[in-house]
């Protein structure tokens, strides 16, 4: 099998993606190679393409919501094999021996390898990773809709799992986009009472169909003030600064404001605002075992990503659609190499 992988790469910050080939070298003993069926586009791909976080290396091959079939496996691969349908998310490797790894928190490994940081991702015909991060799909899962679960999905599922959220909890979700629409579905099937905070009230009926019990206009302070002290957890998926005081005030005693969006500015928190044992927290994506549990949860409750699909050859058109803010709710590229 050839080590030459075909991909789409951006050559500089903000540049369009162009056809690109690279030599991936020999497959590692603990690596698998995945023939990409499809790959979701995350806002993080846009941030990395534009070097917003000042850590992008060019040429840049994004794509960290890749779904496909294992077509090659190293001699020391365990748990998966050639022919398995798997997904690969934001992370593609971890050391396996540190305290975080052996306790099941590989996501916190100091040597964590990230799929599109200092290496090439899934906007390609093939992608590689350590076997432990190639997570098998449930047999009945739609491969085309599965990709966004491996970043957007696990990012919003992880806090429910990590913080053992009660099915009696009242949960709010800020920002109903690629992450937020899945957060509504997870919270609903978890058993929670669900409030959607949206700046687009015209989507109210659609958000209720996704699992929201009510919709609050996030641009109208009086609507947020009206639910003061009522929510046990608020999950924020936005990457913009908000009137955080209002949202902290909307928390009940012992409530949690949980941040998933990369907000550009520090969030001011006064001690008297959180003295009722309120908390502000954050998580990234999720460790392999949690990803597997999320897939099982989705399969059991028939949770699917709402997607718009483009051929991978139309990647620049797809990114323009993402930047327009009109995506409903996650864009997926189908491999057409």
What does this structure look like?
- With 337 residues, this protein is α/β, with parallel strands linked by helices.
- The protein folds into 2 domains: 4-148 and 286-334, Quinone Oxidoreductase, Chain A, domain 1 (Alpha-Beta Complex); 153-282, NAD(P)-binding Rossmann-like Domain (Rossmann fold), CATH 3.40.50.720.
- It contains 10 helices and 17 strands.
- It has helices at 43-49, 99-102, 143-146, 152-162, 180-190, 204-210, 221-225, 244-249, 288-301, 315-323; strands at residues 4-10, 17-23, 31-41, 66-73, 85-88, 91-93, 113-114, 126-130, 135-136, 170-174, 193-198, 214-217, 231-236, 251-259, 279-282, 307-311, 330-334.
- The strands form 4 sheets. Strands 3, 4, 5, 8, 9, 16 and 17 form a 7-stranded mixed sheet that branches. It has a 6-stranded parallel sheet with strand order 12-11-10-13-14-15.
- Helix 4 (152-162) packs parallel to helix 5.
- It is globular.
- The two termini are 16 Å apart.
């Amino acid at each position: 099998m050839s080590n030459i992988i075909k991909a789409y790469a951006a050559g500089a910050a903000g540049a369009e993606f162009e056809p690109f080939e690279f030599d991936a070298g020999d497959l590692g003993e603990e690596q698998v190679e995945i023939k990409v069926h499809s790959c979701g586009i995350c806002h993080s791909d846009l941030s990395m393409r534009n070097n917003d976080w000042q850590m992008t290396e060019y040429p840049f091959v994004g794509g960290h919501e890749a779904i496909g079939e294992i077509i090659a496996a190293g001699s020391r691969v365990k748990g998966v094999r050639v022919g398995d349908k798997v997904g690969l998310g934001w992370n593609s490797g971890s050391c396996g021996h540190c305290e975080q790894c052996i306790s099941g928190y590989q996501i916190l490994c100091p040597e964590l390898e990230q799929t599109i940081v200092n290496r090439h991702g899934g906007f390609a015909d093939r992608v590689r990773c350590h076997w432990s991060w190639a997570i098998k799909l449930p047999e009945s899962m739609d491969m085309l809709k599965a990709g966004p679960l491996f970043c957007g999905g696990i990012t919003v599922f992880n806090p429910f799992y990590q913080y053992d959220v009660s099915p009696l909890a009242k949960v709010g979700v800020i920002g109903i986009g690629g992450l937020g629409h899945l957060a509504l579905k997870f919270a609903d099937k978890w058993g929670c009472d669900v409030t959607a905070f949206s700046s687009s009230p015209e989507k109210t009926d659609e958000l209720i169909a996704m699992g929201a019990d009510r919709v609050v206009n996030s641009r109208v302070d009086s609507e947020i003030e009206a639910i003061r002290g009522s929510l046990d957890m608020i999950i924020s998926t936005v990457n913009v600064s908000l009137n955080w005081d209002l949202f902290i005030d909307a928390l009940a005693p012992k409530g949690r404001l949980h941040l998933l969006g990369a907000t550009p500015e520090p969030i001011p928190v006064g001690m008297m605002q959180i003295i009722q044992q309120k908390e502000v927290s954050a998580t990234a994506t999720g460790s392999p075992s949690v990803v597997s549990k999320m897939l099982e949860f989705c399969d059991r409750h028939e949770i699917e990503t709402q997607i718009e699909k483009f051929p991978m050859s139309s990647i620049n058109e797809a990114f323009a659609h993402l930047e327009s803010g009109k995506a409903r709710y996650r864009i997926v590229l189908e491999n057409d190499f």
